[in-house]
Design brief:
α6 (168-178) links the parallel β3 and β4. The two termini are 31 Å apart. Strands 6, 7, 9, 10, 13, 16 and 19 form a 7-stranded mixed beta sheet that branches. A 5-stranded parallel beta sheet has the order 2-1-3-4-5, sandwiched between helices. A 5-stranded antiparallel beta sheet has the order 8-11-18-14-15. It is an alpha/beta fold. It is built from 13 helices and 19 strands. The chain is globular, with a radius of gyration of 24 Å. The chain has helices at residues 21-36, 73-76, 95-98, 109-121, 137-141, 168-178, 210-222, 230-238, 247-250, 263-279, 281-284, 287-291, 322-325, and strands spanning 86-93, 124-129, 156-160, 183-187, 226-229, 301-305, 319-321, 326-329, 333-337, 344-349, 355-358, 362-364, 366-374, 379-385, 388-395, 402-409, 413-416, 418-422, 431-439. InterPro entries: SGNH_hydro_sf. Keywords: Membrane, Transmembrane, Transmembrane helix.
Length: 440
């Protein structure tokens, strides 16, 4: 069980029996206060989130600069384990981490986090933001070590996948195999569609879809990770974040209202994560914690990625260009550029029935295919190992726009070529294969 969820000693011990009327009255008042506090069901009754008061002030008028939060060191306390003067924080997440929803890039929650952490600690923060819109945790789990190449050694990883979901456990395992830095999970929220998150009493109804939430909880439990719960932080001040009153304050409302945190919501999230990281610094970096963490399974991984345009494999576990993995079998597949980028990134089909086959035979007991598509006209693809059909994948998602779909393939393929067949592609129904990761 994550240490951040342990019951702190001394806060809720049974009161010693005492005949004093004053002590009895205090005990009664304490019991009543616990009953009325809006505590998260994920936390023990006596571990309520402390609120940074200046970060929960009434939002300024539209267009006004966000007021700076006062230092929170008074209630955070100084960690006994020294915080280094230079800290590198690498953040992985979806569109909120990328910065969707803010009016200015400086208002991203990761930038708010950096400023708040530096203000609280005096440390200098090097921030590496790997946020990518409409992308699940699976996308980053493949060939994870490539994200560390050419970057400062991370002091800590922050993962924000409570909305986009995916196999967070697999991503955490990839991180633990590649780095000694601790991993912290950030649980933010969405109200999209808002009607699904309108409960005034149920905290779980105010967060992301249940299966996505459970993926993050599982990773936290198995690998003893801290999870910073932003939902419980804002509820005492705002009530249901998705209410008619709070949603316009916390979320961007111009497109898909409730899907992305707005300027105020992102600022609160960043300041909250900074204060929680400082407050839990000793436990996050406790060597005994990592020593007690299960060792992630060791897999041989072969992966081909859209981001590695033109590159050839450079050894086991290296990311190669997806262009090198496949050769189009017949007409209909071409290696194309993604809109807004100059480089070629994906294999694309625009007609049904065409085949895309690996150059070499493959070996895997599990694989992940990364396909990009638009929800307006979703596509279907079939995956074959030699002549054997392994899986038919329907590329459909509930959000609008271009998506990266991570399709897990829990089927072995040995000594045969892997083939992707576009079942119902068309010029207005494009199918793009942008990556593949294979574990053997």
């Amino acid at each position: 069980m994550p240490a951040s969820l342990d019951r702190p000693p001394g806060l809720c011990g049974d009161f010693a029996r005492n005949t004093s009327a004053v002590v009895g009255l205090l005990a009664l008042l304490l019991g009543l206060s616990i009953l009325v506090l809006p505590l998260s069901p994920l936390y023990p009754a006596c571990n309520s989130q402390q609120i940074l008061g200046s970060a929960l002030t009434t939002p300024a008028a539209a267009g006004a600069a966000a007021p700076a939060a006062a230092p929170a060191t008074a209630w955070l306390g100084a960690p006994s384990r020294a915080i280094p003067p230079n800290v590198t924080v690498m953040v992985f997440g979806g569109s909120t981490t990328f910065g969707r929803g803010v009016s200015d890039p400086a208002n991203k929650w990761v930038e708010s986090f950096r400023r708040a952490f530096e203000r609280l600690t005096g440390s200098n923060v090097t921030l590496v933001n790997r946020g990518r819109g409409a992308t699940t945790a699976d996308y980053f789990a493949s060939c994870f070590s490539r994200y560390l190449n050419g970057q400062p050694t991370p002091t800590v990883f922050l993962l924000e996948f409570a909305i986009n979901g995916g196999n967070v456990t697999r991503l955490v395992e990839s991180m633990l195999r590649s780095s000694d830095a601790p991993v912290v999970l950030v649980r933010q929220m969405a109200c999209y569609p808002a009607i699904r998150y309108s409960s005034a009493t149920d905290l779980d109804a105010r967060v992301s879809w249940p299966e996505q939430r459970e993926e993050q909880r599982t990773a936290a439990y198995v690998y003893r990770l801290h999870e910073f719960d932003f939902v419980s932080h804002v509820v005492p001040r705002y009530g249901s974040p998705c209410s008619a009153d709070s949603l316009p304050k916390l979320f961007q409302v111009h497109e898909a209202p409730g899907q992305h945190l707005g300027d105020l919501g992102q600022r609160l999230l960043g300041e909250f994560v900074a204060s929680e990281l400082v407050r839990n610094w000793d436990e996050v970096f406790d060597p005994a914690r990592r020593a007690a963490t299960p060792h992630p399974p060791a897999f041989k991984e072969t992966c081909f990625y859209a981001d590695e345009v033109g590159s050839a494999c450079a050894g086991e576990g290296a990311a190669c260009s997806i262009e090198n993995a496949f050769a189009p079998d017949g007409e209909g597949w071409s290696f194309v550029a993604k809109a807004g980028r100059k480089d070629k990134v994906c294999w694309q089909a625009d007609r049904p029935g065409v085949r895309l086959t690996t150059v070499d035979p493959v070996e895997f007991f599990e694989a992940t295919i990364y396909a990009e598509f638009t929800d307006r006209n979703p596509s279907t693809m079939e995956l074959f190992c030699g002549n054997q059909l392994l899986k038919e994948i329907h590329l459909k998602h509930g959000m609008r726009g271009s998506m990266v779909k991570a399709a897990a393939l829990h089927a072995a393929c040995s000594g045969q070529k892997l083939t992707v067949v576009s079942k119902d592609a068309a010029p207005d129904q494009l199918l793009r294969v942008c990556g593949i990761s294979m574990f053997s």
